[in-house]
Automatic annotation (TrEMBL):
Residues covered by the Bacterial bifunctional deaminase-reductase C-terminal domain: 9-202
High-level lineage: Bacteria, Pseudomonadati, Pseudomonadota, Betaproteobacteria, Burkholderiales
Organism of provenance: Paraburkholderia fungorum
BP GO annotations: riboflavin biosynthetic process
Protein name as it appears in the record: RibD C-terminal domain-containing protein
Any Pfam family: RibD_C
Length: 213
């Protein structure tokens, strides 16, 4: 049975999942890279950028779980890129180059329609302008029995959690405080929504907590 998951979602100790002033030069926001120091050294990430080295310990296990077994992905427009408003042209195709890491149908939420983009490696970006339910319906169908991942950004994840669609949430708490940025927990009552901790374990670089209904 298809499950909807948030996986490998990095959060600071004070609850921020992205820094301020996201831009082309700072896609994770100012100081946002600090949230992913558990992820960047892993073999999973290094393979994503064409390398063959990398750590294979606990963090890599969670990194692999965050990418494997998904038949479709859903992204917010901010996660796809920094372009705002009407699409000026078809030049921007995401942050990831010609071969994005998804390798599956990937549905991008937007208020502005755009034709689908077929990339290398099996990723096709589909742009959905009629709401989160429509995107999830299409993603479930495309996943063909595999799980669907809500990939981000912060507001997209919160929308799906608040709507009750997310079955499992894996948070990687980085040992850093950002002080400001995009808050994951504001406006969310995870207990009232039925989530409980089903797994928690720490590495040198992060504390991994898995919540499920």
């Amino acid at each position: 049975m298809t499950k909807v998951k948030v996986a490998g979602f990095s959060v600071s100790l004070d609850g921020f999942a992205a820094g301020t002033a996201q831009s082309v030069d700072h896609p994770l926001g100012m100081r946002g890279e600090e949230l992913f120091q558990w992820f960047f050294p892993t073999r999973t990430f290094r393979q994503m950028v064409g390398k063959e080295d990398g750590d294979t310990g606990l963090d890599d296990q969670f990194a692999r779980r965050a990418m494997d077994g998904f038949g479709a992905f859903i992204l917010g427009r901010n996660m796809f890129g920094p372009v705002r408003g009407e699409w000026p042209d078809d030049q921007w195709k995401g942050w990831w180059g010609d071969n994005p890491p998804y390798h599956a149908p990937t549905f991008v939420l937007t208020h502005h329609p755009r034709s689908s983009i077929e990339m290398l490696g099996g990723t096709t970006f589909h742009f959905i302008s009629d709401g989160i339910e429509s995107a999830l319906e299409k993603a479930r169908e495309a996943a063909a029995g595999k799980d669907v991942k809500i990939g981000g950004g912060v507001e997209t994840v919160k929308q799906y959690i608040r709507a009750g669609y997310v079955d499992e949430i894996h948070l990687a708490f980085a040992p850093t405080a950002l002080g400001q940025g995009e808050s994951l927990f504001s406006g969310l009552d995870l207990r009232a929504l039925g989530y409980r901790t089903v797994e928690h374990v720490s590495s040198e670089r992060a504390t991994h907590i898995v919540l499920a209904k």
